[in-house]
Amino acid sequence: MKNIAILASGSGTNAQKIMEYFRQSPKGKIVLLASNKKEAYALERAKMFDVPTVVFSKADLKNGGLAETLRHHQVDLLVLAGFLLQIPPALIQQFPDKIVNIHPALLPNYGGRGMYGMNVHQAVKQAGDRETGITIHLVNENYDEGKIVFQAAVPIAEADSPEQIAEKVHELEHKYYPNVIESLI
C-alpha cells in the first residue's frame, strides 16, 4: 500500500472526494493533508476522516521543512488538490513523477500562472469556447506544463455562466481525480 499526502489551499472538496475514495482502496492510504493556509476548510475535512494535518509556511515549502514532514510520513505520492503555490524544484526532485495536479481546463489552454479557479472559467466564457474540462498531469518546474496523464471534457452552452461552467468542471474533478490517482500508484 502506498502512502499519499494531499496539499490543499482551499475548501477541500476534491480532497474530501480523494479521502472518501482511498478509505476503501487497497492500493493507497491518505497519510497527511498539508495546507499553506491555516483557515483552509480542507483541514477540517481531513479531521473528519482522521487524516493527520499540518499547516506550513511558504518558507517551509522552499527551505525543506515540508519535505522533511513528507519524509516523516513516508509519502510515496503527493497530490495537489486546489493547492495554489508553485512546487519548488527540490521537492520535485524528491518526488520525481510522483506529484500530481488537477487543472480545471483542457491544457495546454488556460494554463500557467494565475490561471486557477474562476479565473479559468471566466477566460473560457470570454473566449466563447463550447467545451471545457479537466486535465490531470504530473508536476514539473513550470505551472501546468507537466506530462498529461488524463483529460475529460464537458460541453458548455453559450448561456452558461462562469459559475455554471465551474459546476460542470467540479463534477468531472470529483468523478475522475481519485481513480486517476489510484491508477498512478
Going by CATH, what is the homologous superfamily of the largest domain? Answer: Formyl transferase, N-terminal domain
Mean pLDDT: 97
Shape: globular
CATH topology of the largest domain: Rossmann fold
Structural class: alpha/beta
Share in β-strands: 15-25%
Helix/strand order, N-terminal first:
EHEHEHHEHEHEEH
Describe this structure as you would to a colleague.
The protein is of the alpha/beta class. The chain folds into two domains: 1-96, Rossmann fold, CATH 3.40.50.170; 103-185, Formyl transferase, N-terminal domain (Rossmann fold), CATH 3.40.50. 39% of the residues lie in helices and 23% in strands. The chain is built from seven helices and seven strands. It has a seven-stranded mixed beta sheet, covered by helices on one side. Helix 2 links the parallel strand 2 (28-35) and strand 3 (53-55). Helix 1 (13-22) packs parallel to helix 7 (162-184) and helix 6 crosses helix 7 (162-184). The chain is globular and about 50 Å long. The mean pLDDT is 97. This is Phosphoribosylglycinamide formyltransferase. Pfam families: Formyl_trans_N. Residues 2-181 form the Formyl transferase N-terminal domain.
